[in-house]
Amino acid sequence: MPSLDLADIRRAHPAVRDDWTIPQEWGHFSAAEHETWRTLYRRMMGVLPGRACDEFLAGLEKLKLADGIPDFETLSADLKAITGWQVVAVPGLVPDDVFFEHLANRRFPAGNFIRAADSLDYIEEPDVFHDVFGHVPMLAHPVFADYMEAYGKGGLRAEGLGALDHLARLYWYTVEFGLIETPEGLRLYGSGIVSSRAESVHALESPSPNRIGFDLERVMRTKYRIDDFQESYFVIPSFEALFAETYKDFGALYAKLEHGPTHEAGEVLAGDRMLHRGDRSYRPHSHAAPPAA
Length: 293
Ligand code: HBI
Ligand code: FE
Known about the structure:
CATH topology: Phenylalanine Hydroxylase
Mean pLDDT: 94
Strand content: 5-15%
Radius of gyration: 19 Å
CATH architecture: Orthogonal Bundle
Order of helices and strands: HHHHEHEHHHEEHHEHEHHE
Bound molecules: 7,8-dihydrobiopterin, fe (iii) ion
Shape: globular
């Protein structure tokens, strides 16, 4: 786990500011790194049409992200004109309170590095492709842009109430790994999925995972995997419904969450609205521990 101590970070990034942002210095990216971005972009566009939701594809189109690692000055100017959001460069993962503070002020923190060309399929930490290709197109959607700001504000409140792990589950099962119902069938919107070629196919088409109708308390009680495909995906009926569902005071909910069960990632409950009951045929394995030689 990378250091989350600003003094450590400052050794490697002397220009880091108190809010953990750093100058992007877009000119420092090499031709090879821009080529890695284009390779990742091309791979994703081979699987996302017909799988990602229209809102994601429309945002991607509007922000013109195909040519290489975007210059955050230009990207932020375009995005600000649409929903008031901007993209800021950070060295990597930042502490929760710093992250929430940025979201609450419509700033999305993006890792200022890209994965190595020889490991396109797995990243230890969110890089610029996961953060910008995965997260930023949905920030061009007004309702989702509002949801992300509300999430940031909720996070700052949750900190005080010791409810961070519940809120992190909400983020995980919507922002990172959410599915949405459409008249044409289920579609992807979660950033962790749409920035991964294999999971974009797995999440929609594998018989293995559960696909369960979104329920706020259910999601906040459900553990998730950080090192492999999800064992359950939660499905929202619309972004408006997600925003309405979560734009209320969580205080009472957090009090309720102090008691009662926590569910394993692959569990199915009697009250679940099952869109697909997984057959668990995919055996999760942890990337973190490389397979025995
Ligand atoms: N930091 N840069 C960065 N990006 C994230 O997505 C991120 C983070 N810090 C914390 C975090 N996500 C999660 O713990 C959220 O659930 C808060
Ligand atoms: Fe992410």
